[in-house]
Amino acid sequence: MVTIKQISEKLRLSPATVSRALNGYPEVSAKTRILVEETARNLNYRPNQLAKKLATGRSGMIGLVLPPSNDKGFDPTFFDVMTGLSRRLTELDLDLVFHAPVFGDDIEPFRRLVGKQAVDGFIVTNPRLSDARIDFLLEEDIPFVVHGRNASEQPGFAYFDIDNFRVGYDATKLLLDLGHRKICFLNGPDDVHFSFERKRGFEKALADHGSDAASGAVRHGRMSESYGYREALAALSLPPAQRPTAFVSSSTIIAAGILRAVRDKGLRVPDDVSIVSHDDAPPQLDAMGFDPALTVTYSPLRDACGPLADILQGLLNGENLDKLQITEEAELIVRQSTGPSPSVDQSKGQTA
């Protein structure tokens, strides 16, 4: 294993200067710091974590508490995202530490890691509208970044999110523009922020189109195919005058259940029923692989990995909070799962 002493001998610098350069001390000139860092990389130097913690007060560890198995907001793409996070953190010379949840106590894992000074900060996933984890970390003044947000309009913490209001709005507006009036929205759990924002977008699109011309139903549940199938089957079993001609889905997993229900009712997509889904690009479900290919609001979860790690690194380095609160747009991609409402008179372009 390469040591600081070996680097110092190679560069004819004191071990103290090399150590300070590697730990980012401001009194070391930029020229010297770059020289030391390049030499350390070339020699494949890896710092002793205990020594690093004693020198800098940092452990080089980032905590992430796994969601409980019974968490209704749990997403099966979770571990795909964690792999991407771990890779990016490794590039930043940080390591991801997983901690098992404690049933009935969201705070205990955080309290343990904070009490032992085992981590430099946390990544919080699946934030709820009212989230005790966020409240605890704010009170303890612990660095953390949230993948998403809570209900606060002006959150005092770092986050990376997508514009979930636009996700709900754009999907619904597309269907309204195609002549659909009876639209059913199968959303995620009702206590998480992304569901709240997508519902707001859905309702705003209906209101903008005119409340007298549009009506919709929002249903909440766990993000699963069985939930999508059950709720879609119930909606499609209503009398024809009440039956939806289109669905908005909060995930491709839910959309898979909707598509199965449509077929079990002897209906066709998009001739009888249109589907728009949000697409996190989970590895096990390709929206292009659906038959027909899904129209989606597209924002891959894996694209959040780099920004989350970089935001937390910026937080640890003392960057301003306003630069560490990032919201990106999802892309609306129109494919074959959407078409005109079956109630549209194509010759007149008006609803029957």
Helix content: 25-40%
Distance between the termini: 77 Å
CATH topology of the largest domain: Rossmann fold
CATH architecture of the largest domain: 3-Layer(aba) Sandwich
Give the number of helices: 12
Strand residue percentage: 15-25%
Output mean pLDDT: 87
Question: What is the β-strand count?
Answer: 14
For the largest sheet, list the strands in their spatial order. 2-1-3-4-5-11
Radius of gyration, Cα only, in angstroms? 25 Å
**SSE pattern:** HHHHEHEHEHEEHEHEHEHEEHEEEE
Inertia-based shape:
elongated
Give the CATH level 1 class of the largest domain.
Answer: Alpha Beta
Largest sheet, described in full?
6 strands, parallel
Number of domains: 2
CATH superfamily of the largest domain: Response regulator
* Residue windows where pLDDT falls under 50 for at least 5 positions: 345-352
Structural class: alpha/beta
Oligomer: single chain
Descriptive overview:
The protein folds into two domains: 61-162 and 302-329, Response regulator (Rossmann fold), CATH 3.40.50; 164-299 and 332-351, Rossmann fold, CATH 3.40.50. The chain contains twelve helices and 14 strands. Mean pLDDT is 87; it is low at 345-352. The protein is 38% helix and 17% strand. It has 352 residues and is an alpha/beta fold. It has a six-stranded parallel beta sheet, with helices on both faces. A six-stranded mixed beta sheet has the order 7-6-8-9-10-12, with helices on both faces. Strands 13-14 form a two-stranded antiparallel sheet.
